[in-house]
Write a structure and sequence with these properties.
Layout (H helix, E strand, L loop, with lengths): L9 E14 L2 E14 L3 E5 L6 H8 L7 E6 L2 E2 L5 H11 E4 L11 H11 L4 H14 L15 H13 L5 E5 L7 H16 L3 E5 L3 H4 L4 E6 L2 E7 L3
The protein binds adenosine-5'-diphosphate.
Length: 236
């Protein structure tokens, strides 16, 4: 069992985190010493120009990669010390992921897509089906359970992806340009849904390069050249 958040409510703590990629004989510092703390229940937008380190940051925060040096604590636990299996387990149980291109499985129905993480968690079919129904209702797609992703609009597909990300009841949602493939009105509706989930206690970390989208977050982290250039928001 992983420990809970640290005493001051920080669920994510980065201390002088660096990520160096080796390209031939050259070292590329994708992250060049990042120190930040995200509190439980906050909503962060990570912003910055292309190449500033946003994706590298999200990969680290989502436990898909480890820092080259420095410390990343998630719920007080030093992620850099965990084995690959422990990292997978952490992702499966504690994190939810939302992507720009939705990443739904086209051959599966809405219900089956939402159920997928539950099977990895060992849920029995009837309980998983019931949970998928609840989650589809929660994102406004209770009447689309038997549809396949190609029969849905982009906004509806992102709702299914959000329902899937919620299946394991994660306390943190990681979103990579979640509105990047949507028109602005649909994007705003997706942001409303994310805000609602944030209001229900989910910590959200979202990468975006769109200021209008970032404005929905409670905090904005501006990156440049692998460093934090500016932090905006209350109590950060
Ligand atoms: P952003 O998401 O803000 O566009 P990235 O995190 O993708 O930025 O990249 C930050 C820097 O690290 C860039 O200079 C990029 O070229 C480099 N980089 C990212 N991933 C790799 C990799 N796998 N190998 C080598 N260099 C990488």
């Amino acid at each position: 069992m992983v420990p809970d958040a640290t005493a001051d409510g920080a669920v994510i703590e980065l201390d002088d985190v660096r990520k160096i990629y080796r390209m031939g004989t050259e070292d590329v510092p994708a992250l060049a010493g990042v120190s930040v703390r995200f509190r439980r229940g906050s909503f962060w937008a990570i912003m910055g120009p292309s190449g500033s380190g946003k994706s590298t940051m999200l990969n680290l925060l989502g436990c898909l990669d480890r820092p080259t040096s420095g410390t990343y604590r998630l719920h007080g636990e030093d992620v850099g010390r965990l084995s690959d299996d422990a990292l997978s387990e952490l992702r499966l149980r504690r994190l939810g992921f939302i992507f720009q291109s939705f990443n739904l499985i086209p051959q599966l129905t809405v219900r089956e897509n939402i159920e997928l993480p539950l099977y990895y968690l060992g849920w029995e079919a009837p309980a998983a089906a019931e949970r998928a129904r609840e989650l589809a209702d929660r994102v406004g797609l209770g009447n689309r359970l038997a549809h396949r992703p190609t029969e849905l609009s982009g906004g509806q597909q992102q709702r299914v992806a959000i329902a899937r990300a919620l299946a394991n009841d994660p306390d943190i949602l990681m979103a990579d340009e979640p509105t990047g493939n949507l028109d602005s009105a649909t994007g705003d509706q997706i942001m409303e849904l994310l805000r609602e989930l944030n209001g229900q206690g989910k910590t959200i970390v979202m990468v975006t390069h769109e200021p209008d989208i970032a404005a929905h977050a409670s905090h904005r982290l501006h990156m440049r050249d692998g460093r934090v250039e500016q932090v905006e928001g209350e109590g950060s």
